[in-house]
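anyone seen this seq b4? input:
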Amino acid sequence: MVIKEIQEYAQIRTKARAYLCYILSRNISKHIEGGIEQVIRNIDSLQKALPQAEAIYVLDGKGEQVIDNVSNNETLKGFGKGEDRSNRAYYYRTMSEHRCILTDPYPSLVSNHLVVTSTFPIYDQEGKLLYIICVDINLRDILRMVHPSSVDSSFGTLSKVVYAAFSAALFAVAILLFFKGISSFMGFGFDISKIDINEMFKATILLTLSLAIVDLVKAIFEEEVLGHEKKENRGDSHQTMVRFLGSIIIALSIEALMLVFKFAITDPSHLMPAVYLIGAVTTLIIGLSIYLKFSRDCVDKEGSCKKN
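predicted toks r here
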């Protein structure tokens, strides 16, 4: 589920940064006069405001940790003072941007979990950087805080169960359609003279619909239950709909062809309904082509049409 969690974080990162920076600014003064003692008092207040924090620590202007980790987790607190963190990405970003920042997920060397770090710089009255407050938060915890419908929330778990149930039900329907399609022409045995063309067309439609539903089940189960990565970088962000519509178009095309043959032989005066059905299929093809064209244009423009 790590890929899905990273995808969700990418979608809510702006909101997460705004929320964390607001909490930090509410509990920590950007300019101090009381030295490290005042910073420690601010950290106590910050820890109460952010109980989800995995660890809170302070760096000086050179990137050296000046206090031990503050954490509710016994295995993470009470050490770290004196460590050089000047080579960390969050230190460089804070120094270059001079503001509160939020990092991408990265593996913590201490907890071995994916974490994100939010930093908050503190300056003296002359604008010199004194300290950087750093807050490490587990990726799953930040999703629970900012994105309640994430895969780790109660709703996210229920959503996976519901999608799994629907996938199982749809797969059962596909199996029934498959056996019905097979049985509709297997009854003729090997006697070719007894084969009914209409039954063959009906069997083809049933098998095509069965294939379409199986493809739909595969897409739903992989994306919503297993959390596999969607192929957004190739303009395939809606594979479920595209694949299903493509199979439906094929099935309707076969149905229209069957009607043309049937009415051409039995009653040519009823050919117009078949023509109307062919026109509807053509409209679906044109609509799907336009949708795919615009979807790929969005991707070509560096994701400007994607959801953030």
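The domain at 2-146 is CATH 3.30.450.20 (Beta-Lactamase). The chain has two domains: 2-146, 154-300. kinda curious what u guys think
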